[in-house]
Amino acid sequence: MTNQEDGNPLVVLFLVVMVDMIGFGIIIPFLTFFIDDLASAKGIIEIGFWVAIMMAGYSLAQFLFSPFWGMLSDRVGRRPVIMMGLVGNTVFFTVFGLSSSLFMAFIARFLAGAANANIAVAKAYIGDISDHSNLAKRMGLIGAAFGLGFTIGPFIGGELSSPAEKWSLFKGTIFDTFPYLLPCVAASLLSLVSLFLAFSRLPESLEKQSRVSIEHSGVSMLKEMFQDCVKVLRLPTIGTMILVGLLFTYGFTIMHAVFILFTEMAPLEGGLGFSEAENGRIFAVIGLGGIVVQGGLIGPMTRKFGSPRLLGAGVLITGLGLTLIPYVPSQSPWLPMILVVILIAFGNGLFQPSYSSILAGLARSQNHDLGLVMGAQESLGAFARILGPLTGGLVWDATFRSEGLLSKSTVFHLCGLMMIIAFSLYLLVNTKSDLESE
Cα torsion at 30, 31, 34, 39 (round to 10°)? Predict the structure, then answer.
């Protein structure tokens, strides 16, 4: 391919992944409010569980369908599978906004997760059109698209929620009846634009002679994935490092389910009284912080301090930020909350690239299959993203009305505890092996 020929596919893939992340992030600012409305209609008071299963259901669908999409793309090509995912996005985003029951909302969100399980196919596409000299740089586009999508998604979701309360144009319309439909329609339109670009400008990357027949079922692939995870966890040093990443992701995603459950509470009840838009802006700050760290600071900091030190610092800084969330004062909360989420974004931005670098270095130094190790790490990370929100929602429902040792702060203390355990395991690895040489 010429530079001109392979430029357009990369731009389209960047947009596809960014739209996927916008779809994940766009519901964050209003999900709790939406579930609260749907639950109240059924007389359900404790909504933490329902918020949790909406988030966990999306991640579960991605976990279950990723092997299927990858397997299908090996047989029919990358382009049609990417386009099928975009069709699913376009439909299920809008269906979610039109949901009139908790069950309908869950099904729409699960199917959206299934459609969005094709990010691995986008990575495979990049692998098809790249060589060793430019593969790492092009894979970095995926990370950049993640960061931008997670910044733009929550901002759009917050600003476009309840439009009839903000702009008279929407009063008496369907957007008045369904106050969270507009951001979902916006996500659908973005997905539709990406679909048009994929249809018109994305060539197929997998030559017909390179395609394979499907020899394994999705169930057998999931079984093989589980076996690979067990095998990698048993590897010395590498298994412990993967547990560090698993605990970090678990603690971090516990917060995803409960952050807005806390911030939306009235100040008299111990919360901050934030609206959907205000929560969207907070998450946009987290996304921007991650872009700044991973896009600009991580390179020079790694050269100066090394990945092992940055990983340890990232775990501790993230844990501190997560633990401080419930202590943001209800009077004039903005500056303290921004400082807290900057801590979280900075810590996470240090951890993620440092962890990937160390894990890849360990795999190479011990002559293990890099694909096996990184694949197991991704699978276990997906499992943590399922378990984290479920834990957060259940713990919140059990404790948020209590005072003393068990209270609304308990779930955030749990996040901090997971980071302490992760840091302790990291120290164990760093003591027994020379990570600095990786």
Answer: -150
Q: Whole domain around residue 197: which residue ranges?
A: 1-201
Q: Is 268 a domain residue?
A: yes
Q: Using CA atoms, how far apart are residues 390 and 33, in angstroms rounded to an integer?
A: 18
| Burial (0-12, 13-18, 19+ Cβ within 10 Å), 227 | exposed
Indicate whether 401 and 347 sit together in one domain: yes
What would you measure as the largest C-alpha separation in the chain, in angstroms? 66
- Count of residues for the chain? 438
The Cα 380–Cα 373 span in angstroms is: 11
Domain check: are 175 and 231 in the same one?
Answer: no
Q: Sign of torsion, CA 302 305 309 310?
A: negative
**139 & 274 share domain:** no
The sign one gets for the Cα dihedral 182, 16, 116, 348 is negative
Selection from 261, 105, 107, 103 nearest residue 178 by Cα: 105
Mean pLDDT of the chain: 85
Domain of residue 329, CATH code = 1.20.1250.20
Q: Is 37 exposed, middle or buried (0-12, 13-18, 19+ CB in 10 A)?
A: middle
pLDDT in tens, 89-148: 899 999 999 999 999 999 999 998 888 766 778 777 877 777 666 665 676 677 677 778
Question: What is the pLDDT, as a whole number, of residue 409?
Answer: 94
Domains in the chain, number: 2
Does residue 206 form part of some domain?
A: no
Contact criterion met (CB below 8 Å) for 306 and 182: no
Residue ending a domain, choose from 144, 167, 201: 201
**Cβ contacts of residue 30 below 8 Å, gap of 6+?**
157, 158, 161, 180, 183, 276, 279, 280
Q: Are residues 117 and 2 in the same domain?
A: yes
Buried b (16+ CB within 10 A) or exposed e, 2-14: eeeebeebbebbb
pTM value is 0.83
